[in-house]
Every structure is written in C-alpha cells, then in structure tokens.
Design brief:
Protochlorophyllide reductase is composed of three subunits; BchL, BchN and BchB. Forms a heterotetramer of two BchB and two BchN subunits. Belongs to the BchN/ChlN family. It comes from Salibaculum griseiflavum. The chain is α/β, with parallel strands linked by helices and 428 residues long. It has 3 domains: 154 residues, Nitrogenase molybdenum iron protein domain (Rossmann fold); 122 residues, Nitrogenase molybdenum iron protein domain (Rossmann fold), CATH 3.40.50; 96 residues, Rossmann fold, CATH 3.40.50. It has 17 helices and 14 strands. The strands form 3 sheets. The chain has a 6-stranded parallel beta sheet, sandwiched between helices. It has a 4-stranded parallel beta sheet with strand order 3-2-4-5. The chain has a 4-stranded parallel beta sheet with strand order 7-6-8-9, sandwiched between helices. Helix 10 packs antiparallel against helix 11. The radius of gyration is 22 Å and the shape is globular. The two termini are 29 Å apart.
C-alpha cells in the first residue's frame, strides 16, 4: 500500500475515552534501560545496588560475553545487608572506591536503585553526594531508581536522564536540546538534518561523553525523541526550558512533523526545511512502501509495554495501512503524546495501565494479525497460533528519522512473513 501523503484522520483520538486498567502487569523492570544507556554514554558506569537476580537479569538481557568488560555491574546485597547486620552504605562506598581505582576511564557513575535496595531503604542519594565529594570533579556520581516494583522498563532511561538535569550548568544561550538516548546512527542523521535546516546550537541529552557542554536555561527549547520521558520533561521545565510539542520522529510523517515543529520554534521558514528534507522524505516513503504491501489491511493489537505504543500505532495505521484494534500503553502523558493522538484515527480501544488477564481475553477475542507485546507474553500467544512482535526490540533498534523508516516498518512485516513461510512449509 503506497501513499504519497497519509490521509487526515476522520477524527483524532485526543478526546477518545481511555480504558484505565489496574491489575497484574507484564513488563521488564527499569534496570533494563542500562542495556542501551551504557552503550550511549561512553565514559559512564552504571552500578546496580541489588541482588544476584538483578545481576542475572542484566547479564542475560545484555548477552555480555565472559571476556567483555561492560560499563555496568552489580553491587550485590548479601543476606547480612538485607538483615541489617552489615553497614550497606560503608560496603557500597568501598565497592565504588575499588571500581574507580580500577576503571580510570569512568567520568560519570550512576548508583542505580533496585527492588532490594528500596525495600531496605538504602539511601543512595546520600551515598551519591558523599562519593561525588570524594571523587569529584573527575567523577560525577548520581543516583536514580531502576526498581521494577511499580514501573515499566523504559522508565529506567527517564529516571536516569531526569537525575542528570539538576546537575546541568545554567546557560542563557538560545539553543535546541534533543532529548532521548538514540543509537548513534540515528542521532547523527538527526543532527545533520537540523544543522542543514539552520539550527546551529544543538545539545543532546544524554551526551556521549561527560565533558560535553550540555547546559539548560530559559532560552533552551527541547524536543523529545522518545515518548517515555515524562519525568525528564518535568525536570527540564523546572529548569526553565520550553518543550516543543510534536509527533515523535517515527516514520516519514512523524519525522517531517517533528522537524517542522522544531524549525517553527526557531523561526525558520518551512520552504527552507522542505528543501532540505524533500530527498530523505522520498527515500523514506519508498522504503516504507515496500514493507507496507504486506501490512496493509492487517490488524494490530498493542499490549502496554514501552510507552511507544501510541506513536507506533499512528505510524502503522497512517503510513502502513494497518488497522489498530487496541492501543495499550502503561501511561498516557498528554503533554508528550497529544500530537500523535490527534493524528491517530478514532476506532481502536485506547487503554492505560494493564490488567493482563482481561487484556489477554480481549486479544484472543480479536485474533489480530499481529500482536505487539513483551517477551513474557509472546511465546504463550505464539503457541496459540498468534503472530507477535517483541516490544523491547523497538527501543534499542535504530528506528527514528527518515533513513530508518523502512527498517521500522520491516520490524512489523517480518513476523508476518515468518508466519506465511511456516504455513507454506507445513503445507508441503
């Protein structure tokens, strides 16, 4: 299905009723965000203060080989720590001292809280202050919570970036801040487009290196690249920065709207923007059309997982011709996703939160062509003959901006191609 320009929705979903669910939910915890954050911030280290279960989760999810030395680790809370028989603060500080003595390349150290550290009320903020005083200014020590008690996994990145904002230096310079951890290839393409459009003072949060000059102030406008950064959004506004509302840069339409919104904020004429983006827009439309041929007319059902569900539903329905049955998301932050909701045509159930058994019943009744869900639900649904897409892959795969638009569509078309091939093999 090829569209030169997506049609306008008959009526957007901005004011659509929201099914609010509170019950058992199936998501990874916020520690998972370390998997892509440690790759992004090249002189940072993430020290999880948690149990052996936390360590096993990170090792399994990241697939770290035994000879690799990643930029994350776990300070194990032993039984004596949990029982209050040892001074966990003193032990943590000794572990940090040993780590920094061995890894002299570390410039930022994040103490990451977990379920066990929060249960015993370990004060990591106090530890971060003492360690910063001891090891600064060479090493800046910050803390945030990656606990999975009441969070979804992308909130780990949000908590990390929000913890960085109060420590940013103040600046009065007129600047754009691009916010969200993107793979380097996508970030570089975005910076190139923005530069050619005419925006010459751009900072990125998180920066790849701790010594990057990232300041914030009343003349800072910030554009989010990820829809799960509600805490970071609030932290930046408290520092006086101004948010640029826009659809998220997923697909040709979302990327175009995002770039035009940024350009408007900086007083740049749309004709100049269009002259820069015409060629990459055409490439994006052509790439998406290849995958859209197998997606057009198919139904898609989103379980709440990454908080990317609303922008993805907008992309799949408007650029790929799919029909959304239900768009479930852990949280709906209207200040962030309102522009995408306005473009999403009415029709699908919009749900916030999760009661997994009820949602599974709705999914089984609908029998969608494609179900986007977490790993814990994918295999059971596949065993029932349903076709699934892992939501977590959409977070750390390059999918933003024009050159990745075709890859984004391909992530959804491949499970359908796999299903068709299996059917052919079974029939032979």
């Amino acid at each position: 299905m090829t569209r030169h320009s997506p049609p306008p929705p008959t009526m957007g979903c901005s004011d659509a009723p929201v099914l609010k669910e509170r019950g058992q939910h199936e998501v990874f915890c916020g520690l998972t965000g370390i998997i892509w954050l440690h790759r992004k911030m090249q002189d940072a280290f993430f020290l999880v203060v948690g149990s052996r279960t936390c360590a096993h989760l990170l090792q399994s999810a990241a697939g770290v080989m035994i000879f690799a030395e990643p930029r994350f680790g776990t300070a194990i809370l032993e039984e004596s720590d949990l029982a209050g028989l040892a001074d966990a603060q003193d032990e943590l500080e000794r572990e940090v001292d040993r780590l920094l003595a061995r890894r002299t390349d570390i410039r930022q150290l994040f103490l990451v809280g977990s379920c066990p550290s929060e249960v015993i009320k370990l004060d990591l903020s106090r530890a971060a202050e003492r360690l910063s005083a001891r090891h600064g200014p060479k090493v800046r020590v910050l803390n945030y919570s990656g606990s999975g008690i009441e969070t979804t996994f992308t909130e780990g990145e949000d908590a990390c970036l929000a913890a960085m904002v109060p420590a940013l230096p103040a600046t009065d310079q007129r600047q754009l801040m691009m916010v969200g951890a993107l793979p380097d290839v996508a970030e570089d393409q975005a910076l190139d487009l923005l530069g050619r459009i005419g925006i010459d003072n751009i900072t990125v949060l998180p920066a790849r290196h701790a010594d990057a000059r990232v300041g914030v102030g009343p003349n800072t406008s910030f554009a989010l690249t990820q829809p799960f950064l509600g805490g970071t959004h609030s932290a930046l506004e408290r520092r006086g920065a101004r948010h640029i509302p826009a659809p998220f840069p997923l697909g040709e339409e979302g990327t175009t709207a995002w770039l035009r919104a940024v350009a408007r904020d900086f007083g740049i004429d749309q004709a100049r923007v269009d002259a820069v983006i015409d060629a990459p827009r055409a490439r994006a439309r052509k790439a998406v059309a290849k995958a859209a041929d197998s997606l057009a007319g198919k139904t898609v059902f989103f379980f709440p997982d990454s908080q990317m569900e609303i922008p993805l539903a907008r992309f799949l329905t408007r650029e790929c011709g799919m029909e959304a049955v239900e768009v479930g998301t852990p949280y709906i932050h209207k200040a962030l996703v309102a522009p995408d909701l306005e473009l999403l045509a009415e029709g699908p159930v919009i749900s916030e939160g999760q009661d997994v058994e009820k949602q599974l019943d709705r999914c089984r009744t609908a029998r969608p062509d494609l179900t986007v869900c977490g790993l814990g639900l994918a295999n059971p649904l596949e065993s029932e003959g349903m076709t699934t897409k892992w939501a977590i892959e959409l977070v750390f795969t390059p999918v933003h901006f024009y050159e990745q638009a075709g890859d984004l569509a391909g992530l959804f078309s491949r499970p359908l191609h796999r299903r068709d091939r299996l059917k052919l093999e079974a029939a032979e």
